[in-house]
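Schema walk-through. Below, the input block comes first and the output block second. Nothing else is stored per chain. Lengths vary across the set, and this one has 562 residues.
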Amino acid sequence: MSTEKGTQEQTVTVGSSRLLKGAALLAAAAVFSKLLGTLQKIPLQNIAGDGAFGIYNAVYPLYLLILFLATAGFPITVAKFVQDRAAARDHAGARRVAAASALLLTATGVLCFLLLYFGADVLAGWIGTAAAAPAIRSISYALLLVPVLSVLRGYFQGYGNMVPTAVSQAVEQTVRVLTMVLLLLYLTEQGAGDGDIAAGATFGSVTGAAGALLLLLFYWQRSKDRSVGRREAARAGDAGPAGTKEPLGRLMASIGAYALPICLGSIMTPILNLIDAFTIPRLLLGGGADPAEAMRQFGLYNHGLPLVQAVTMVASSLTAVLVPAIAAAKAADPAQLQIRTERTVRMTGLLGLAAAAGLASLTVPVNVMLYQSEEASGTMALLALTALFGTLNIVLAGVLQGLGAVNAPALHLLAAAAVKIGGSLLLVPRWGIAGAAVSAVLAFAAASALGLAEVRRLTGAPQRPRSSALAPLAAAALMCAALGALQLAGGPLLGALAPGLGPRGQASVLALAGVALGAAVYALALLRFGAVNRAELEQLPGGGKLASALTKLRLFPQGERL
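--- output ---
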């Protein structure tokens, strides 16, 4: 009996270890893919200019929304259905789930392809420029490939094998970016117009999906070969009973019903970006700008978004661990739920505040470093503030899902969408793209406020006093002052000592030095002002050693050094 129990515990330990390693691999691949996908916009603007950049950023959110409508929720759903059958050793049933899902998603993918391809001219008219039509047609082909790609990723995840998904994500983004850069260089050399250049950039999504799909089909064939061994084991009595063949129609209906709520909760983020694509260019046109200038202005507006997305990417990578951690605390230790939730949200807020204040202070050198121009730096500074609320929203959504409130994030983002539309209609005609940035800040702030209120309601956490925000705000203000001094003194100094660097090289030095200086000043100020205490620091990975070192350096307030 004890031997059997020990074997079971060992199996659980091995399974948990494999799951954690797989989750870590998947998170690393997701971070790499998101970072590459975010930063690929910079060479697009550098090579093609703000006109093509604006068209690309108007079309891509439309594609993402259609893609989310067609596939969102299905990798998770397929993984769940496959996992259930794999646990019962019904491997034929698991492959039947993949087949049913592929049929369902291929049908929706074809319909969405037809919608984008044949409706490209109409959709381009809604955006406000006919030049967007080639890019819409170019990217529509990806919808013929991505559905099967999503099913295969879910299938392998259902077996706990994260390697195919992780590798395919990296391959997809690498091929996508390489295709985009090569086509950009070719089309610009040929003197193509902004619309055709943007179409070349969007076609990278097609080749990226094709590369990832070929790789997953290779993994699929290997797993199919291994299933022969499973069938032979089943005949020898080593496997469980074979599953009954559930009708494909009923299975497809079950899969669709399970995936629909997840899909509805996922499409709101693309909707916020799509609102910008359908409102800002048209509002600029209404203000007297011609179509080319409207798209150029929209391209300038999007200068700040890759940086904010790079910050929020880090927060999104935490949700894979956050959701089960909060759910486990709710089930096993409700007394610790409030403490764990409050600490998670507060630390997220501190990191988001640092990113927002730092980016806002460094927008001029960062703008010159990345885009070779100071134009629209004020708009970039305003958009930088969304880094605070964006990271909070992502983590709050993870917390709420862990608490079981799976529909709350979608409702909060729906409210944010309403604020974004109203704010853009009111402010863009008056302030141009700066008004669009202000409306974005208000929209994300509204979603954060609703998320915080819902988390407090579910956990019973009391309202924190306003004075608790003084120390982080003081640390952020000190960081901004240090970064301002760096630019005032460092700019002329670099111009005198290193004129050969040129404006872009000098801006790059200031931006990178500013990141290091800002992080150091903010962290030290948080410690000295008591915004982060030793007990909280010790909860972080490696925090115990760090807390001891900081105590020896007397960086904690007097009451925290013991």
